[in-house]
Design brief:
97 residues; alpha+beta; 35% helix
Length: 97
Amino acid sequence: MFTRIVKMEFESKNVPTFLANFDTVKSKIRNFPGCLFLELYQDKKEPTIFFTYSKWEHEDDLENYRQSELFKGVWATTKPMFRSKAQAWSVDTLYNG
């Protein structure tokens, strides 16, 4: 299992559209094979910065999601709303609890 963290920064006018779209796709992403967990976070000081935090069973599961029609649709909708390029990290948990 590993965690994927994605940082996204939006134009302020696009935040409501992004949030509405995320609300419609979050359950589809959560139910994608291999996805164990998905949450969305918003920066406390900069309301145009968001992070997705997801847990995946295997790296292949994330790659299958990234090659899926679901991801392609989500990304095609989300990417044009960015103020800057998204950043992503795949990380392993070293300590839990």
